[in-house]
Design brief:
Strand content: under 5%
Largest sheet: none
Number of helices: 4
Radius of gyration: 17 Å
Helix content: 55-70%
Order of helices and strands: HHHH
Length: 88
């Protein structure tokens, strides 16, 4: 089963769960599956299609130039500035 299908199933179970505890468990499972898929993609050097900060699509030219990119250029610049202040 693909990650997408697993996440979809976990969300469905959360929506139809009979009580709050079961709904929370379903949401935690969907979050865990999504997190595992993201880590696997990062380990394989794959970037993201959408920016992890602003959720806008990462342009194809950026993904081609930096296949590991997880942020759009604007958000990456902001991230680099924040990190520079923290470490420098």
């Amino acid at each position: 089963m693909t990650d997408y299908m697993e996440i979809t199933e976990a969300f469905h179970q959360a929506r139809t769960a009979p009580d709050v505890t079961d709904r929370a468990t379903g949401l935690e499972e969907a979050d865990r599956i999504g997190g595992v898929a993201l880590v696997q993609a990062r380990l394989q050097g794959q970037g993201a299609e959408f920016c992890i900060d602003c959720d806008e699509a990462i342009p194809a030219k950026r993904r081609a130039a930096a296949p590991w990119a997880e942020r759009c250029i604007s958000c990456q610049d902001d991230h680099d500035k924040r990190e520079g202040r923290r470490h420098g």
